[in-house]
Amino acid sequence: MPLIITLTHEADALQTLRDEWNDLQGRSVARGAALSWTWINVWWQHFHDLGELWLMEARRSEDNRLVGIAPMMRIQVNPRVGLGWQQIEFIGSSHFHEHLDFIIEPDYEMQVISLFIEKLKQHRNRWDILRLARLSDTPTLSFLESSEESWQVNEKQVMISPYIQLPADIDAWMSSVSKNRRKKQRRYLRYLNETYPDNWSITQVTDPTHLDKVFDELVELHQAKWDDTDKSGAFYQYGDLRAYFRDLMHALLQDGCLRLYQMVVDGETVVVLFSYYYQGRTYDQVSGVHDISADVPVGHVMTQHSIAQAIADGADEYTFMWGTEPYKYSFGAKDRIQHAFDLVNSKRVQFHKKTAQFLRGIKSRVREVSAGDDDK
User: Looking at per-residue confidence, does 355 or 70 come out higher?
Assistant: First the structure.
């Protein structure tokens, strides 16, 4: 069936697409929350000055039905060494948002992906690299792996995001984790009930006014973990992101997707977890924790609560987002690789990437040699 592909750089197009966007994503296998119209809209409001919108639509010529969206943008990349380049990427890639992809009607995937890429190649004088990153096991990945184009795997952009395949009830999930994990969770709950009888609770934030207060507590608790390190934490990783995350939470709350949990013990907030539920998947985004006892990690109590609520919501998956911290696997998580591919459209940039890869190899070899000398 003939399709019409359009490319626009006008942000007003985002506003007019809201209902069609939501309907299409509801049919697509690309169900990532960071691909939702709400998320993309909030992100663009805050960070549109980072680049130029490259939004593509695929419509059936016979009835104008929307069957594909490519939520992309063009940015200027300035490496620490060498000349910069123009790059086309998914919106949100620069902040390492996950589960990004083209949003396409089932049975149209291969046709639309091919047409989207051909449309971008028609404008290849305006970009140096086309980067498709944060891809899970979707038709886009299959398309790239079988493509005759010179797509390059970008190992530096590959991410591992542990996730739990959820059963139908909490008892089945508890039975799936190790005996040691079950024993620990029971001990943590017993400690709280015996030490703080009727004086501890976990609640879900549903009041927009209360949300702002709990958000401030989340930032304070989370950043306290990073204050004594050389890392910046989630809210300052790419500049000051507090206003962005606050607005995002309010938008998710309005859509009924926000799962912001607050744990209070003896009148003090000790854990705040920012998570959200979207199209059958619950995302464990970021938390702030103040442990009240070295033997009782209250963050783990919150994780169990959040998983139980995800099951109650009917989620089939609980994702911890990227990072391979050991505790995630103790709750039954397994790895999901989020892939990244580059199509390089510039000999200069190709030379830069090969040189950088060569230098990284030398540095890695030097570190191995140095480590071997230290062991002697």
Answer: 70
Q: Strand, helix or coil at 344?
A: strand
What are the beta bridge partners of residue 282? 277, 318
Per residue in 52-66, pLDDT (tens digit) is: 999 999 999 999 999
Considering only CA atoms, which of 107, 122, 110 is closest in space to residue 6?
122
Neighbouring-strand partners of residue 265: 200, 268
Q: How many domains does the chain have?
A: 2
Residues 172 and 85 grouped into a single domain:
no
CATH number for position 154? 3.40.630.30
The pair phi, psi for residue 316, each rounded to 5°, is -100, -5
- Concatenated DSSP letters for 124-177? GGG-SEEEEEEE-SSHHHHHHHH-SS--EE-GGG-EE--EEE--SSHHHHHHHS
Range of the domain at 20: 3-162+337-345
Same-domain status, 101 and 243: no
DSSP character string of 319-343: E--S---HHHHHTT-B--EEEEEEE
Over residues 105-159, the pLDDT tens digits come to 999 999 999 999 999 999 999 999 999 999 988 999 999 989 988 899 888 888 8
Question: What is the DSSP code string of 238-298?
Answer: TB--HHHHHHHHHHHHHHT-EEEEEEEETTEEEEEEEEEEETTEEEEEEEEE--SBTTB-H
Yes or no: say if 349 and 128 are a contact pair by the CB < 8 Å rule.
yes
Averaged confidence pLDDT in the chain: 91
pTM, 2 dp: 0.89
Which region among 47-56, 226-235, 335-344, 358-367 has the lowest average model confidence (pLDDT)? 358-367
Burial 176-212 (b: 16+ CB within 10 A, else e): ebeeebeebbeebeebbeeeeeeebebeebeeeeebe
Rounded Cα–Cα distance for residues 97 and 48 (Å): 16
